[in-house]
Design a protein that fits this description.
Helix content is about 30%, strand content about 20%. By secondary structure, it is an alpha/beta fold. The strands form four sheets. Strands 1, 10, 13, 14, 16, 17 and 18 form a seven-stranded mixed β-sheet that branches. The protein has a four-stranded parallel β-sheet with strand order 4-3-2-9. It is elongated and about 80 Å long.
Length: about 400
């Protein structure tokens, strides 16, 4: 892990109350479906343990991560709710997964065999989920292999098939081909449920929908949804936002802000070319402000070419030159800006807000990548009510 930059005035600010609000909003939208909060990749950059606890307090029924190590981090941080592993663990890490009371996803016969052996070592009866591939072709049991996975689970007492799931690949796209393909995936999942039942497997938890799916396709919600981006206050794109609001207003609040302080201000003449490469001439005499964040922190160089802006004093100002590894320079014109003034690189300041989707548009990417891109050199600061100690709960539903 790289060193955090506590010695410089740049930080990620995470609003824990916003996370709770978002979880409550999604629970209200989902009705009877359980809410699985996806907190992989350090809670989408927000900090895994504080974010997980806040989302659980807001109503999430359990959590999902990608790596065994991510699940262990949550357990060591005091999280006691169910934690689903979204990928099949390696044979070597299966025992560690069960020891940490994580719920593995299984997709292969080899994975089932490894899970049975690991459960024997631990000496407990463990829940597992099975993932089927309905068309994304990344992970999951292929249709021809699915019956063999089910058969490998028969006649043993170590594993209980608690869940069956798949993943939607284009639920955030609203053109006709994508809508049709999403419906095809749902039909293929229904068929997988039928095949599982023919093999005597009756999972209590069925889950298909991600954030986009849960917001746009009511028939994708099943008994649980896996929600990531929406819980952090963002939606994948404007199409999803528009479609989601057709059902009812959606009250989501972005939880992450990126803030810094001006560390230097200097007057420059018209025609001067700040930063590496001298790539853009100052159109007028004025001031440039130095801000301590750079591409090593997740502020990409391509934002300069995209004419990206930052907020200082509630006003937008463009970059004056190339993004460097540790710093940017901002053209503040003739506005009086001083060392120590706060800079909003992501989030609200005054009456304006720079959003993750704005970043994504400038970078020709998606908001997920933006939020996950801020590294360990930027420390996380938490505002709002701090989480309380977690009560132990091992099941995805709340009734005893």
């Amino acid at each position: 892990m790289s060193a955090e930059g506590h010695s410089r005035p740049t930080w990620v600010e995470v609003d824990l109350d916003a996370l709770r609000q978002n979880a409550r909003a999604m629970k209200e939208r989902l009705g009877s479906s359980a809410l699985c909060a996806v907190v992989k990749a350090n809670g989408y950059g927000h900090g895994a343990v504080p974010s997980a606890k806040a989302l659980l307090e807001g109503g999430a029924d359990g959590l999902a991560v990608a790596l065994v190590d991510e699940g262990i981090e949550l357990r060591q941080g005091g999280v006691t709710a169910p934690i689903l592993l979204l990928s099949e663990p390696t044979t070597e890490s299966m025992t560690a997964a069960f020891a940490a009371v994580l719920t593995p996803t299984l997709t292969t016969v080899e994975g089932v065999v490894a899970a049975i052996e690991a459960a024997k070592q631990i000496g407990s009866r463990n829940p597992v989920h099975i993932k089927v591939d309905t068309g994304m072709h990344r992970m999951g049991a292929m249709p021809n292999d699915f019956p063999a996975v089910l058969e490998a689970l028969q006649g043993q007492d170590q594993l209980v098939v608690e869940g069956l799931w798949t993943h939607l690949s284009v639920a955030d796209e609203q053109h006709d081909d994508s809508v049709r393909f999403t419906q095809i995936q749902l039909e293929r999942f229904d068929e997988a449920v039928r095949i599982a039942e023919e093999h005597g497997v009756h999972p209590s938890v069925l889950h298909v929908a991600n954030s986009a799916g849960s917001l746009v396709y009511q028939n994708s919600r099943f008994s649980m949804v896996r929600c990531g981006l929406a819980l952090y206050g963002e939606v994948p794109n404007d199409e999803v936002s528009a479609m989601a609001r057709l059902e009812q207003p959606l009250d989501l609040k972005p939880a992450m802000s990126i803030k810094s302080l001006v560390t230097a201000v200097r007057d420059v003449d018209a025609g001067e070319r700040p930063s590496y490469g001298r790539r853009r001439a100052m159109p007028h005499a004025g001031r440039v402000a130095t801000v301590p964040i750079g591409y090593a922190d997740g502020f990409p160089r391509s934002l300069f070419d995209a004419h990206h802006e930052v907020l200082i004093g509630g006003q937008r100002f463009p970059l004056a030159g190339s993004v460097t590894m540790d710093q940017i320079v901002v053209d503040v014109g003739d506005i009086r800006v001083e060392v120590g003034d706060e800079v909003a690189l992501l989030g609200a300041q005054g009456n304006d807000r720079i959003t993750a989707n704005e970043w994504a548009a400038h970078l020709q990417t998606i908001p997920y990548e933006v939020l996950c891109g801020f590294g360990d050199r930027i420390p996380r600061r938490y505002v709002g009510t701090l989480p309380e100690e977690q009560k132990v709960r091992r099941r995805w539903w709340r009734s005893s």
